[in-house]
Design brief:
single chain; alpha+beta; Tetrahydropterin Synthase, Chain A; 3-stranded antiparallel sheet; 11 strands
């Protein structure tokens, strides 16, 4: 081995004498090799230097140098950038309008009440520990996607389909993010999950029409309930007001009758007291007062006593009967 190296060195020396400027060329190549170790870390990056594949140090934003290839190399993951993982779909063209491709194998999930739902979502994350991110797992994006899919399947499996399709979406996002962060922390992936955002949450295509009918029925039910509540809120105050009015009128009638009865009783007691004092006078007065009240309403004929002795008394019963019948016919 040593002999071969000495022979190579002697051949290089002989080549140096044979080729003019060979030393300068070697120096330029060496300089370029040394300069190839310069690297610049951008403000949104962090440098990680590897020596023969093993991490030896990290580098902050700015210019740095490492021993050139093949001894050392530098990786520069973006630690402030928000990365994105799509689950259940893939973006084919991000132009306007964007085009997507569905991935049913990832999107179809089973809910807690044994219904199938097609759920598409994205995971947004940032690299928190570049060393763990680069060296603890091999395929970072696939690992995050698989963990996110497992987390949301567990969360959806604990909820009913109505909650998944309607008002439970926000809670599902929060629960999935918490569960996913716990899984990735156990894997020591070195990332921070910023958000889990549901995109499309739909029942499977063959039963979409049936689910729309159910949703329409629920909307009609809520509409009818709201209308009935509105009618209830309108009619109840009116009914309560009318009831209170009737109660007030009844109380007023009661008070009036009580006061009237008390007045009649008091007047009777006063008359009784006067009657006890002078019975004849009081009897005559009551008689006259009664006649004053009755006689104005009656048809009457006054005859002198002398004349009345020569007149035949006549009582017109037929006229009285006709008059009584007319009075009964009046409402």
């Amino acid at each position: 081995m040593v002999k071969k190296f000495e022979e190579s060195f002697r051949s290089f020396k002989s080549l140096k004498h044979k080729i003019p400027g060979a030393g300068a060329i070697v120096m330029v190549i060496l300089a370029l090799w040394v300069l190839s170790g310069i690297f610049i870390v951008a403000p949104d990056e962090m440098g990680v230097v590897k020596r023969f594949g093993k991490m030896v140090r990290t580098a902050q934003p700015g210019p740095h140098w490492h021993i050139p290839f093949p001894v050392e190399s530098a990786l520069k993951p973006k630690v402030t950038k928000v990365h994105r993982v799509e689950v259940g779909f893939r973006t084919v063209d991000s132009g306007s309008p964007a085009r997507y491709r569905e991935v049913p194998a990832e999107a179809l999930m089973l809910t807690g009440d044994a219904n199938i739902v097609a759920l598409e979502f994205i995971v947004q994350y940032r690299i928190q520990d570049p060393v763990s991110y680069l060296f603890n797992i091999r395929d970072q994006e696939k690992t995050i996607k698989d963990a996110a899919e497992a987390a949301i399947r567990e969360v959806v499996g604990k909820n009913k389909i109505d909650e998944v399709l309607t008002e439970g979406k926000f809670q599902i996002q929060q629960d999935t993010m918490t569960l996913l962060q716990g899984i990735l922390d156990r894997y020591e992936v070195g990332i921070m999950v910023d958000a889990v955002q549901l995109q499309d949450v739909l029942p499977p295509e063959p039963v979409i029409a049936a689910f729309k009918d159910v949703a329409s029925a629920k909307e009609d039910k809520e509409k009818i309930e709201n209308q009935s509540m509105g009618y209830r809120n309108d009619i109840l105050p009116k009914a309560k007001g009318m009831a209170q009015q009737i109660i007030n009128e009844a109380q007023a009638y009661r008070e009036a009758k009580i006061n009237e009865a008390k007045g009649d009783a008091s007047r009777f007691l006063q008359v009784l007291a006067e009657y006890k004092k002078a019975k004849d006078v009081t009897r005559t007065r009551i008689y006259l007062e009664t006649l004053e009240e009755i006689l104005p309403r009656m048809e009457k004929v006054l005859l002198d006593q002398n004349v009345s002795e020569r007149v035949l008394p006549y009582l017109p019963l037929e006229r009285l009967m006709e008059k009584g019948g007319q009075e009964k016919a009046k409402p």
